Amino acid sequence: MPAEYIPASFDPLSTEQISNTICETFERQPLVAMTRELPRFEGAGLYAIYYRGRSVDLYAPLADLQVPVYVGRARSSNSATGETVREPYPLYKRVRQHRISIIEGGLPIAEFRFRALLLPDVHIDLGENGLRVGYQPIWNSTIKGFGGHEQGATTRQSKKSKWDTVHDGRRRTHGGVIHDARALIEQVKAHIQWQVADYDHMPWPHPAAETYLDLDVV
Fold first, then answer.
1. Which residue intervals make up region (Disordered) (predicted)?
2. Helix %, strand %, coil % of the chain (to 5)
């Protein structure tokens, strides 16, 4: 008796397929150096930060992979109200803020890169979700707190984040330390081992080669 045959099913406009397409397009964008102040650009979109060095042993296993240490978004509208944000440079300002955080956290900024893609808000959300779920970036998951804005005067006594515990030095006020840095580092190592082992299981193909944009020489 012949085996049962069922044709493949494909919906090019499904949420999953659109998300995968955004992630694949995103990873074809150049990796941009963060050593110098970034040139200002308009627009909202998706961005991610990558480690591309060798001196930070903690993140060195990710240096040759498309695994970001952090994924974020900058929207053109308020996610709660839908109102348009008047700030014309939301994506630029987020990446600029993160550059300062990396430097203040004592990490070698020359060994970090970012990539970005301008997108409509609805597609920003799909792309960010795809990258976060697929890679579970270390600064989004295991040691949270990197992307937090400086607190206002009424909330500055909140406890030090996990990221600030591991990478101490940002110029902000904390109410105290509640995390064990050594324990967090061990969690980071274990999580990165999982990321490396799971690397080939992404639902979109990795680019064959990376392109780089060095703002020091452009």
1. 149-172
2. 35, 10, 55
Written as one letter, the residue type at 130 is G
DSSP state letters, 155-215: TTTSPPPHHHHHS---S---S---S-HHHHHHHHHHHHHHHHHTGGG-SSPPPSS--EE-T
pLDDT at 90 over 80: yes
β-pairing verdict for 70-74 and 45-51: antiparallel
Phi then psi for residue 73, to 5 deg, are -140, 160
What tens digit of pLDDT does each residue of 157-205 get? 678 999 999 999 998 878 788 999 999 999 999 999 999 999 999 999 9
Decide: residue 193, CB within 10 A, 0-12 exposed, 13-18 middle, 19+ buried. Answer: exposed
CB 48 within 8 A of CB 72: yes
Cβ atoms < 10 Å from Cβ of 196: 14
**pLDDT (mean) for 138-167:** 82
